[in-house]
Amino acid sequence: MAADATRGDSGRVAIEAFALALLTALPLVPYFLYLREHPIGRFELRGDYAGLELATRYVSSGRTLLGPYSRFGFNHPGPLYFYALAPLYGLWGSTSTGILAGAAVINASAAMTIVGAVRLAATRAHAMAATLVVLGWLGAFGDVCALPWNPLVVVLPMIAFLVLAALVANGTWNALPVAVLAGAFVAETHLSTVPTVLGVSVAIAMVVAVRARRGHALDRRAKTRVLAGLAVLALAVTPPVIEQLLTPTGNITKLARFFSTRTEPLKPLRVAVADWAFATSWLPGRLRSQALLAELEPEIMRSVPTAAPSSLAAFSVPLVLLGLAAAAGVLAFRRRDHVSVALVATGGLASVVSVGALRAIIGADYMYLLFWTTAATTLLWIGIASTCARMLADLVARSSRASLARAGVAVATVALFVVALGVSSLQRGYLSRPALVPPLNPTLRDGYAAVRARLAAIGATPVFHADAAGWDIGMSFLLESAKDGVDARVVERERWIFGRQPHGIEGLARPLHVFVQTREARLAIRECLEKLATVGEIEIYTSDIDVVVCPVRTP
Predict the structure, then answer these.
(1) Domain residue ranges of the chain, discontinuous segments joined by +
(2) Per residue in 184-202, pLDDT tens?
(3) Beta strand 530-535 with 461-468: parallel, antiparallel or unpaired?
(4) In what order do the strands lie in the sheet with 511-517?
(5) Counting beta carbons within 10 angstroms of the beta carbon of residue 528, is it exposed (0 to 12), middle (13 to 18) or buried (19 or more)?
(6) What is the pLDDT averaged over residues 16-36?
(7) What is the pTM (predicted TM-score) of this model?
């Protein structure tokens, strides 16, 4: 980042940036301590979490070329999330604990990047304002920071991308490569964010082009950063392009078909606006109610339809936010506070694009499908806070008493430290009650043992299916097989669910197809299968051949 020339020594600025970044990460320390004291054992992850760990395990073998799977038959665009998790996963001994700790590290890194970048590119006042808002975000949503589910893990990195993009628009070229990396990470990890990332990127490129035409041509350093950004982008898109070229029906083709063959109409604009307003109200609302201490699991990740606001009173928070953002933008423009102008403008643009993206949601509008939109509105809060902080700093600077300025900085620093401790205490309160994941599931362990015993008896290779409860439990069995070094397979039609990491069944001398059902998820083909075992709430069936349709009528 460019050093702050108006604040003197670049070394001092770097130290301040590092200190503020550490302060921002303080609220996430309780999660690392919790995971050290409560490591995640085997058979504790299932479903989506097990699939994320499985994809991370296969990074080193070069078999992870796509992002997490989607319920619509394709994968999210790219594997950068897994590439970021892989070294962190290895540091935790390639255990399930590493997935949760890795998510916490990614979120902590994003939070530190936000405030560190602002300090390196702007003034102390701007950076302190950004620190305050990020601490507020952690106070509202810290309970999701150690959860590796991809709709949750993209939000703080997206805020970082938007902040970095705003700094690039303001002429901070050193931010460009990191902005490209953050944007690629977010867009590859969850498809819903792609329109916002692309829209903001195009807008920033246009701003840069206009600035160049007005005499702000790119110098050698700026051109070097642009080339570095392009190199980062090329590396980011290489894995999904390789997968597309090596696969008969690649994921890029699937994505194109998904959008070109969509039959469900876009949601009405009023519904998208209502959803955006609902999500916008979460940050102040959760802070006010200290929601982390009231919920046993993060409400944001629940798969329940949203109850979007419909009354004017329910729109009060977003209306106040928009009013404050407009006022801040005007004040910052008049005062030539270019950093705050860039932050507010970028947040506003991202909010508009995100409303458009919300119209494309298929099916019910679940809370976790709206969560990513809070990144844009959080940036608006940062822009508002930075405008106010810069105005206050300028007022103090006009004073003839230097001691007043030093006292103001000291008071602000102490206040931020107290806030960070308070947010950290809030996280500890949350962690004192619920567990991040369910404890060891003996049903899964014993069911997996029954499958392994059968395999050993007949000398077969397991083929796990996603039918019925296989989507959830079969994913866990596949993960545990990988940990045991078993070459478990999946049928070709289901490989997309498992990220294409496991091999198909071609060339298997003796496959054993494994199906699982529970009371809630019944197998329609169970009459054509052999029952292996009943363990707790799960029933395990096997077959020597792949069974898709069973001619026997199953009640």
Answers:
(1) 5-38+69-431, 442-543
(2) 999 999 999 999 999 999 9
(3) unpaired
(4) 461-468, 511-517, 538-543, 530-535
(5) middle
(6) 94
(7) 0.92
